[in-house]
From TrEMBL:
It holds the Pfam family Melibiase. It comes from Agarivorans aestuarii. It is an enzyme of class 3 (hydrolase). The lineage of its organism: Bacteria, Pseudomonadati, Pseudomonadota, Gammaproteobacteria, Alteromonadales. The keyword Hydrolase applies. It catalyses: Hydrolysis of terminal, non-reducing alpha-D-galactose residues in alpha-D-galactosides, including galactose oligosaccharides, galactomannans and galactolipids. It comes from the Bacteria. Residues 22-248 form the Glycosyl hydrolase family 36 N-terminal domain. GO terms for molecular function: alpha-galactosidase activity. This is Alpha-galactosidase. Its EC number is 3.2.1.22.
Length: 700
């Protein structure tokens, strides 16, 4: 049909009506055949007391055509051309992608809308570009991607947080009005992760129709979900542009960040499975095909106290525990004895390292470990050589006081001299030393981010991408971790240039259970940095048994935060046990399909990962259970006709004291059919609050 564009993936269809503007008629379950009468069957009535024409919910809704909720484009040309109305002039489509060109010959603007449906993952990818066809400047204030939702998407699940408590979720009804989230912090942010879910009432981990959305952008953003007064629903996401930030000269173009979205009939598990498959195939670019190495990061072990001989002892002890990558954190560079000085002076402190860094790196490598180094290139301290030489490199608005954040300031990466200095210093470090890994930190928000007097979050974000791109092109074997006071810069676009996220500065295992679950909806385990910390958390002062700490870290990209020289031998053995357990199951953890099971006890998290023939399931008791006996573990993702070998992998020994008699299967191997596991389930032992067990299933 010439008036229909039908994009198909393995499980989904995206059907777009071609008219004055393109409009999505269906996005969801796959449609095998489009009927001839589909256009007639989807024609809307026009209600009384409204406009006399139908107003489509297009791929870029227009205020000028009567869309009164949230237009996809806003801007003006010296107060004129502020309500454009576009007409489609051409389009291209294939089985998986479509490109639409639209023009407004009055406002002299051209839109290009690109939309792709990935066949294997069912993920939709969309962006819009606007080009100024007039010789006078066009001041763009908003350009966002819009995708519709069906009427039965009646509930939203959104994300909020703060430092050390990222990826918290919130549920709300979605029947009138809507939801809006704005982020002006200059980075993806701890507070406002650019993602949300909409779905049928009471959708959960395993059930319900759900639509998931994520904006791949590391700067400011606006994310909203609206219900129109006629019942139509949509989600809209784009960069939040500061006043005057984008001014388009003649034939100049601005493009939105990519909006990623997917639909699922199997609840949130279906969403995470689709996002994970897409990210693994299209976003992550590991320099080598090898297991993700277990980390030891020195920060919580020694902070700023650097002694090369002592650090080499730490490395020796770390290697004995099974660590595979050893990272020296903050404090290695000249003048850095605390958090108030020396950022920007990326030269080795020869007073701390009189023999250079080479002996330490050589020792680390001799222990069979890779070497990594902490940097924070975007920042500068006023007490630094760099600031004394180049105070003009600070990202600020002249004439105003620029507040410090964590006693530091932001460098203007759009300044070419500053950009070149940072590239030269980082490249020299990577050339001189055998560094396989950079922990790239970014520890504050942007306040009055001005470049030559104009707002510059967009430019700063793109300059960061350019710096990372250039560095990786020059040093393609280096891996980079995106750490921004923990989880402050986590999104698909930064992940194209990095290889790991530090999910949170909070190493409290109980808090991490929620943080890591929220993050897991979008990102696969192999990029989620998850460390076993000391028994007392440095951020909450809460103490946890090694079982809770080890099991919480085991399912991500594992690392440890400790001083292995000082901890008792028994503690080191416990760390080594969980490192070995992680390595044993790492191939499954870092390639399998992640899932979560609904728990009858809302104080329990049940999650797992599976391949075609094996499965790991972790049951974490977050707090005191509601009942004296736990509910059976009913496993929905097994094959009913298959048989499985079931073994207990890990159990907190302290929990045995809670039972006069424990289930005898705990120290046996069971053979159970899929329908038994799914319908009857596995009786669990009683667990202490803040403890976890793990079960392994192998298909036979």
């Amino acid at each position: 049909m010439s008036q229909i564009v039908h994009l198909c993936s393995k499980n989904c269809s995206l059907i777009i009506k071609l008219a004055r503007v393109p409009e999505i008629l269906h996005w969801g379950n796959k449609i095998e055949q489009i009927d001839e009468d589909i256009l007639l069957s989807t024609e809307r009535p026009i209600s009384q007391a409204r406009l006399d024409v139908d107003v489509p919910l297009s791929l870029c809704p227009e205020l000028g055509s009567g869309h009164f909720n949230a237009p996809g484009i806003e801007g003006h040309r010296n107060g004129y051309d502020w309500a454009p109305v576009f007409n489609t002039t051409e389009h291209y489509s294939s089985e998986s992608c479509a490109v639409f060109t639209l023009r407004d010959d009055v406002a002299n603007l051209e839109l290009k809308i690109e939309i792709e449906l990935d066949y294997d993952s069912d993920v939709v990818k969309k962006r819009i570009s606007v080009t100024n066809l007039e010789h006078s400047k066009y001041y763009l204030t908003k350009l966002s991607s819009t995708l519709p939702l069906p009427h039965h998407a009646n509930e939203l699940m959104t994300f909020h947080g703060r430092w050390s408590r990222e990826f918290q979720t919130h549920r709300q009804a979605f029947s009138h009005g809507g939801f809006m989230q704005e982020n002006r912090r200059g980075r993806t942010s701890h507070e406002n992760f650019p993602g949300l879910f909409a779905g049928s009432n009471n959708f959960d981990q395993q059930n319900g129709q759900v639509w998931g959305f994520h904006l791949g952008w590391s700067g400011n953003h606006q994310l909203r979900a609206d219900v129109k007064s006629d019942g139509r629903r949509f989600v809209q996401a784009g960069e939040l542009l500061l006043a005057g930030e984008v001014r388009l000269d003649y034939m100049q173009t601005y493009s939105t960040p990519w909006l990623y979205a997917c639909a699922s009939n199997t609840g949130l598990n279906g969403i995470s499975d689709r996002f994970h498959r897409y990210v693994r195939a299209n976003i992550i670019r590991f320099p080598e095909n090898k297991p993700r190495p277990v980390h030891l990061n020195t920060w919580e072990g020694i902070y700023f106290e650097h002694d090369p001989e002592y650090i080499m002892k730490m490395a020796s002890e770390a290697a004995e525990m099974g660590v595979e990558r050893f990272i020296i954190d903050d404090g290695w560079f000249v003048g850095r004895s605390g958090e108030r000085s020396a950022l920007g002076d990326w030269y080795l402190d020869e007073k701390k390292y009189p023999n250079g860094l080479e002996p330490v790196i050589e020792h680390v490598n001799q222990q069979g470990m890779e070497f990594g180094l902490w940097v924070e290139p975007e920042m500068i301290s006023k007490d630094s050589i760099l600031y004394r030489e180049h105070p003009e490199w600070v990202l600020e608005l002249k004439g105003y006081h620029q507040p410090s954040g964590r006693w530091q300031y932001v460098l203007n990466l759009q300044n070419k001299d500053c950009f070149n200095y940072l590239f030269e210093r980082l490249s020299e470090l990577l050339t001189r030393y055998n560094i396989g890994y950079l922990k790239w930190d970014m520890n504050r928000e942007l306040v009055q981010p001005g470049h030559v007097g104009r707002p510059a979050v967009n430019g700063q974000t793109k300059a960061l991408y350019a710096l990372l791109d250039k560095l990786l092109a020059t040093h393609p074997k280096v891996e980079i971790e995106s750490c921004s006071s923990g989880g402050g810069r986590i999104d698909f676009e930064i992940l194209k240039r990095t290889h790991r996220f530090w999910a949170s500065d909070c190493n409290d295992a109980l808090e991490r259970q929620t943080i890591q679950r929220g993050m897991s909806y979008f990102f696969p385990p192999e990029v989620m940095g998850a460390h076993i910390g000391p028994d007392e958390s440095h951020t909450t002062r809460r103490c946890h048994h090694i079982n809770m700490r080890g099991m919480t870290a085991l399912s991500g990209h594992m690392g440890v935060e400790l001083d292995p020289v000082k901890v008792p031998a028994e503690e080191k053995q416990a760390f080594a046990h969980y490192i070995a357990l992680h390595k044993q199951y790492r191939p499954l953890l870092h390639s399998g399909r992640s899932f979560r099971l609904n728990a009858s006890d809302n104080r329990q998290h049940i999650s797992g990962v599976q391949s075609d023939d094996e499965m790991l399931i972790t049951v974490c008791q977050l707090a005191m259970p509601d009942y004296a006996l736990p509910a059976p573990l009913r496993i929905s993702c097994v094959e009913p006709g298959a048989s499985y070998q079931v073994n207990l992998v890990e159990m907190p020994e302290t929990s045995f004291q809670l039972m006069k008699q424990r289930p005898s299967w705990l120290d046996k191997t069971l053979i159970l059919s899929g329908d038994n596991l799914r319908e009857i389930g596995l009786t669990l032992p009683i667990l202490d609050p803040e403890s976890a067990l793990m079960v392994h299933l192998k298909r036979i």
